[in-house]
Amino acid sequence: MYSEFLSGNQQKRAEQKTFKLAVKSKSGHRIEHMKTLVKTKANPVDMKIGIAKFKGLRNGRLLIETHNKQEIDAVNNTIIETCSQELEASKPKP
């Protein structure tokens, strides 16, 4: 049935594995400022990285999610290289 097809498709999307990276400001910057720093200095668009989620958390951290481990590692390395004086990136424990 049509409804079964739709529900099966949603389950496949939910089962996709995502890889997360939490970014924290070293000097207490706001989340909007951290987003612009990552977008301008690390520039994931130029690296051709597909980011699934890019959102601020209540604890003042920025959460970045991708569907590929190599992409999240590349974003992590780029943030460390370009923004290490202002931002600190870490992979949350599963």
Radius of gyration: 15 Å
Low-pLDDT regions: none
CATH class equals Alpha Beta
Distance between the termini: 36 Å
Strand order, sheet with most strands:
2-3-1-4
Helix residue percentage: 40-55%
Q: Specify the structural class.
A: alpha+beta
Mean pLDDT: 86
Helical run tally:
3
Q: What is the annotated CATH architecture?
A: 2-Layer Sandwich
Most strands sheet: 4 strands, antiparallel
The geometry reads as globular
Number of domains: 1
Please name the CATH topology: Alpha-Beta Plaits
Strand content: 15-25%
Oligomeric grouping of the chains? single chain
What is the N-to-C order of secondary-structure elements (H for helix, E for strand)? HEHEEHE
Number of strands: 4
Features:
94 residues, alpha+beta, Alpha-Beta Plaits, four-stranded antiparallel sheet
Task: Give the structure's gist in a few sentences.
The chain has 94 residues and is an alpha+beta fold.
Q: Could you please describe the fold and organization of this structure?
A:
- With 94 residues, the protein is of the alpha+beta class.
- It has a single domain, classed as Alpha-Beta Plaits.
- Helix content is 44%, strand content 23%.
- It has 3 helices and 4 strands.
- It has helices at 2-15, 31-42, 69-83, and strands at residues 19-25, 51-56, 62-66, 87-90.
- The chain has a 4-stranded antiparallel β-sheet, with helices on one face.
- A hairpin with a 5-residue loop joins β2 (51-56) and β3 (62-66).
- α2 crosses α3.
- The protein starts with a helix and ends with a strand.
